[in-house]
């Protein structure tokens, strides 16, 4: 078993380095910049509009009300399900890992990735709604595989390329659902719960080459809970997500604000460190200046995309199930998704760590050798809420909710990719496999589970971004059409779907509510 894991780590390291260091980050940020420019900085120039039409419509029944159509879910349910998959360990352990490896400056590059990632996510969702279709069960199916096959594939000489990339994306999405969507999340759940709620009578017993029996039992419990919800399909996942996600985000942010408020004297030094070390990393990171800066930027971008998933083409698979007719409307929910995930939750986590005193802003290192990136945030909470280890226990529970909902969200992503490759009748096979992989997250080492997740993220990102880049003119056209109709109030025909029948039905509804 140990030899297998060592060989797996070596192979993964080679692929990971190629995907992320060689080409991934350049394509990721390049696409973000491109989509931002072609939409004329929509996330900034139309800030008031997208804010009003997303979180500003929270109490609109059309947004939060459950859809009577069994084939779709409400925009808010789509957001919550997408956030369930994105707001996970990346927002807690991922941020602390980025700081530990890349220093405080990595947080700045997470912000940069998020700023441009807003429009990447927007573009993915616009294309997802535009190219979606109904499957044999009368359910909406959408995602990168469809705009790769029907969008990229419609370009001259690109039919085969589009089909091949759609197939590759689906394969990588399934593998990613086992990594970021299962093993990586469960690994952090188990690490935090076993430390915060240790039961020595069980944790002292080791099985499977040194793995704690406690970890194995936790993995089995999580696997059973996952099965109860996942087998029920998207409707059950969405119903669970819309109840849990808003609650867990609000509670985590409130707890973070309390800690940051108590340590308010360190807020300015923390912010100063973020901006300064983004371009001038501290010596503690080691290596030449070029290598160090590259490490800081890489960590910021990798952890940023791990957290908000902009560019992966993943969340579009659930956004495409929304009952909206306007591609741009769901695109705006994609902007808010990245904003909420990175600009709010990740920033809170970063400030908790950097103001807690557990991270030395001058040396760029942890003040205690016993601290680990996986439990750093818990220690920061414990520094304020130390009575009976309430802070650590709170983070363990928060990590469980964050990561568990991510497992549920990614089960839907993987099932849609499986459906594309093998048909909807065999999706139950994927769900069973996905549920079983939960146990592996409980027994794998933290670093290996994390690295595998990074690799699968990068692999599915590449074909998706190729499709987004090629279809950027279409995104610009759809956005311009929406702005003319909804903001400038011009009388122009709406652009809603590639399919003439879907376009006709959607157009009737859009014009009826004009």
**Rough shape?**
globular
The level 1 CATH classification is Mainly Alpha
Q: Which range does the strand content fall in? A: under 5%
Query: What is the CA-CA span between the terminal residues?
Result: 63 Å
Domains counted in the coordinates: how many? 1
CATH architecture: Up-down Bundle
CATH topology: Amino acid/polyamine transporter I
Average pLDDT, all residues: 80
**Main sheet makeup:** 2 strands, antiparallel
> What structural category characterises the helix and strand content?
mainly alpha
Question: Could you list the spans in which at least 5 consecutive residues all have pLDDT below 50?
Answer: 63-67, 286-292
Strand element count: 6
Radius of gyration: 22 Å
Number of helices: 22
Structure description:
This protein has helices at 2-38, 42-45, 47-52, 61-64, 75-86, 89-102, 105-131, 144-151, 159-196, 200-203, 213-230, 234-262, 267-277, 289-308, 316-319, 327-355, 376-382, 390-422, 427-443, 446-470, 472-487, 500-512, and strands spanning 133-134, 140-141, 206-207, 211-212, 359-360, 365-366. The strands form three sheets. A two-stranded antiparallel ribbon has the order 1-2. Strands 3-4 form a two-stranded antiparallel sheet. It has a two-stranded antiparallel sheet with strand order 5-6. Mean pLDDT is 80; it is low at 63-67 and 286-292. It is mainly alpha-helical and 514 residues long. Helices cover 73% and strands 2% of the residues. It has 22 helices and six strands.
Highlighted features:
22 helices; Amino acid/polyamine transporter I; 514 residues; 73% helix; mainly alpha; globular; two-stranded antiparallel ribbon
